[in-house]
Structure formats: C-alpha cells, structure tokens
Amino acid sequence: MKTNVRVAALAAVAAAAIAAPAIASHSWSTYHWQRTSSVISPPVITAIDQAKWGTYVTNAVGDWNGNDPDQTYTDYIESPGPTASGLNPKTCKAQSGKILVCNAKYGFTGWLGIAQIWLSGGHIAQGITKLNDSYFNTATYNKPEWRALVACQEIGHDYGLGHQDEDFNNADVEQPAGSQSCMDYTNQPLGNETPNGHDYEQLASMYSHSHSAFQALGPGQSRSNGLNNASGGDSPSEWGRAVHFDAQGRPDYFMMDLG
C-alpha cells in the first residue's frame, strides 16, 4: 500500500470550529500560540533518537525560528533549539507550554508523521510531533529528504500552520517561484524539505498581534485542566471526529472536545 504524509490530529479543551485551509491562507484554522511579548517562545523539547533524527529536528526548528532569509516574521517567533527531555517517546505525552517532538515505532498506521495540539481559551497550550519509525526504518522512507520534509511539516503544524496544498498529484507549490515548501503534500520530497516565503508570510500574519498576559484563559480556567500529560493516541479512533478531508477524500484533520 502506498503511504503518504498524513497529518494531523487536533485536540481541543473547549469546543471550537475549524475551517478548511486554502492555498492562499494556510493557517490551521485560527489556532496560534499566545504572544505576550515581542516573540512567542514555546520551547521545543525532544524525546528522539539523536543519531536518527537529531539533525533533521534541529534543522527544522532552525528553519521555523530564525532562518528566514527575508526576515519577514522573526520579530514574532523565536524558540530555543531542541533539548533532551528524558520523556518516553512511545507515549509522547504533551507538556504544557511546550512543543514535544518524539520518534518511535508507532506501527503501520498510514502516517509518517502527525502533529497534535491542545487548546486552552482558543490558544495553543501545548503540542507534539510524532515521527513514525515503522516507516522510516524501511528502504522507501529511510532517506534524508523524507526525514527532513516530515520533521519540518509536523513542527510547522505545531506552530499553527496548515498545508499549502493537499493534492499529491499536482505540481508542488512554489511561492515565490523556485521555492518549494515542506507544507505541501508531495510524493517528491527532494526540494521540499524546508519552509518557503509564503509559510513565513503566513506566520507573520498569525503572530502580528499580541495578547494580555492572561487573555487566553477564561474565568476559572487553568492551563493544567485536561492538559497535563495528555497523549493523543496513534489512530483515528483516538482523535475524535474528522473535520477536514484532503484532495483524495481522506480525513486529515481531527478534533476532540476534552471538556
């Protein structure tokens, strides 16, 4: 069976609606981290095999946080590089206020990587990326370009980005011309391992406003409620209801109200 990059699961602490992403604007609905200072800075922590994934995760974090050659959004988003967390990569339990990146053999689930975010008061409160070694240990996907593309795409989702395009069979998105994107569905990973200009522009748009220190929380809410040590599961049956379908008619975004 042909396997493609399948992303992503979405969990919510409060009920919310999600809109289908479009090529011209590819945020993941309205979801973004709270920004109370000049930047957002959710630390990226890891539970990964450094020999297999260290370079690709480090490069992906760098691409999303400061390597934009046009400097179109780095006034808003800044994050330290990945650090060892000592967490169990198989369970990959989310950590409040952080992005956690894990790799493990999650099984032949139909996805190379998934991103999951949890919401509190409409803002992202924590996120995880899972990189599925069940596929990356095979000759088909054990290639630098596949590892780089998937790491880049899933971490991009954890910042609130959607896909630029969801058709595997059309030409790869290039915005600007000559600049392909890891946020594009593709069967040709080489050349699509990094963000492009439109990805950075979208991030600038998403994070161009700031919030008061506690705006993300409503009366009586706590960041820990329903969030601490959350694990989103590895199969659609654990992700709630499908709220979006890709160009092939397959569900690729899911939502669960955690109450």
Descriptive report:
By secondary structure, the chain is of the alpha/beta class. It has four helices and eight strands. It has helices at 50-64, 133-136, 144-158, 197-206; strands at 11-12, 44-47, 83-84, 99-104, 113-120, 123-132, 241-245, 251-257. The strands form two sheets. Strands 3-2-4-6-5 form a five-stranded mixed beta sheet. A three-stranded mixed beta sheet has the order 1-8-7, with no helix packed on it. The longest helix has 15 residues, at 50-64. The radius of gyration is 17 Å and the shape is globular. The N and C termini lie far apart (37 Å). The model is unreliable at 1-25 and 214-226 (pLDDT under 50).
Largest sheet: 5 strands, mixed
Could you give the order of strands across the largest sheet? 3-2-4-6-5
* Model regions low in confidence, pLDDT < 50 over at least 5 residues: 1-25, 214-226
Judging from the principal axes of the Cα atoms, what is the shape?
globular
Q: Report the radius of gyration as a whole number of Å.
A: 17 Å
Mean pLDDT over the full residue set: 75
Q: How many helices?
A: 4
Which bin fits the share of residues in helices?
10-25%
Quantity of strands, as a count: 8
Strand content: 15-25%
- Indicate the structural class: alpha/beta
For the termini, the CA-CA separation is 37 Å
The arrangement of helices and strands along the chain is: EEHEEEEHHHEE
